[in-house]
Amino acid sequence: MVLNRAAHPRARNEKMIIVLKPHSTKEQIDHILERIEELGFKAHVSQGELRTIIGVIGDENKLQAEPLAAIPGVEQVLPILKPFKLASREFHENDSVIKLNGVRIGGGALGMIAGPCAVESEEILDEIARKVKAAGANILRGGAFKPRTSPYSFQGLGEEGLKILRAVGDRYQMPVVTEVMNPRQIDLVCQYADMLQIGARNMQNFDLLKEVGQTNKPVFLKRAMSATVKDLLMSAEYIMAAGNHQVVLCERGVRSFEDSTRNMLDMSAVPNVKVQSHLPIIVDPSHATGRPDLIPAMARAAVAAGADGVHIEVHSCPEKALSDGPQALLPDQYASLMTELKQLAEVMHRVIDH
Fold first, then answer.
1. CATH code for the domain in which residue 233 is found
2. Whether residue 110 sits in one domain with residue 224
3. The pLDDT value given to residue 82
4. Are residues 114 and 13 in the same domain?
């Protein structure tokens, strides 16, 4: 339940959390929400089995803890200093676990995403899926709609690509993730995909974020090339504020002056996010480095840093790939890397669902 009342356009919003007493009744919760609205604030309710938490947003000049704490049924009022509320550790202390048809991401479970940059044909995708599944990957990726720098580059197979991705994913019992590029594609992609990817170029496409926030599909949100960690979490907040709390973050490198790699992989983003947010975060060393020779080391570093999974592009013949072939691992290379990642995961008490 979300109550809306617009603040003055020049007002700065403050955020607080109201912790209700255990086993609060529906009547008490409704009364608290009514009082919050009467005071001119917005509310967002999070109900657990034993306790209810209400996030409150309002003008910093008017939002005070005292009148809120005096409402019957309120146990504690806590201020939130971060601009992202729903994504913060203050709002949700424990790690969130996102589930994709039996595959968990977060809370000690690793999402190992693998597949080609683009779906090119069912034959090629089938070969890749069979091999990455055997190696230990538990989520299949492949683009049906491809945002390319050049308008003359391969743009993807569209719905035909989605059908192929779904068929191959079902064949190998792997949930599938694919990119959605604009709000008009959401309904179509939702028919086939288990998870919606928001690419780096669309991380701050706020209309798109709000639209995927109204779906019931988990969202794989990639960090933009010039975005801070705060920017990434604020984009996640857009999705969550629209009602969808199933968000998985992705660190895939940021722009820097270094020109020997595609981007600069910000490995510190993993523990940085973990301190500030309860959302899972996966690392994509393929897009971050653009170099197959660097992917294994960065993938190992990601798991060691506490990432909730690794996203790697794999192609059976990278030199013939229609998109991003130079940054893809061969299936045998991926299998060798997964052997190492499984050993590292075991040492760190992590599990990989199959």
1. 3.20.20.70
2. yes
3. 76
4. no
Domain boundary among 19, 47, 80: 80
Cβ atoms of 340 and 296 closer than 8 Å = yes
Question: Helix, strand, coil % (nearest 5) of the chain?
Answer: 35, 25, 40
* Integer angstrom CA distances of residue 18 from 74, 100, 124, 126, 203: 7, 31, 53, 50, 30
Which residue in the block uniquely carries the two structure tokens 């028919």?
191
Q: How far is CA 86 from CA 43, 46, 90, 187, 308, in A?
A: 11, 9, 9, 25, 19
Domain assignment present for residue 93? The answer is: no
Give yes or no for residue 55 having a pLDDT over 70: yes
Domain containing 72 equals: 2-80
Q: Which residues, in sequence order, are CB contacts of 76 under 8 Å at separation 6+?
A: 18, 19, 69
270: phi then psi, degrees, rounded to nearest 5: -65, -60
Total structural domains in the chain?
2
294-298: list long-range contacts, CB under 8 Å, 24+ apart.
294/261, 295/327, 295/329, 295/337, 296/333, 296/336, 296/337, 296/340, 298/265, 298/267
Q: Based on the domain organization, do 111 and 231 belong to the same domain?
A: yes
Does some domain include residue 306?
Answer: yes
User: ∠ CA 243-272-42 to the nearest 5 degrees?
Assistant: 30
Residue 125 has pLDDT above 80, yes or no: yes
| CA 277/CA 91 separation, integer angstroms | 9
Q: In this structure, is residue 242 part of a structural domain?
A: yes
Tell whether 74 and 192 lie within a shared domain.
Answer: no
pTM: 0.81
Q: How many CA atoms lie within 13 A of 56 on its CB side?
A: 31
For residue 270, the tally of other CB atoms under 10 A from its CB is: 22
Alpha helices in 172-293 (DSSP H): 186-190, 206-212, 229-241, 269-276, 285-289
Kindly report which listed range (142-156, 164-178, 225-239) carries the lowest average pLDDT score. Answer: 142-156
- Which H or E element spans position 220? strand 219-222
Adjacent-strand bridge partners of 260: none
Domain boundary among 80, 114, 132: 80
186 contacts 217 by C-beta, under 8 angstroms: no
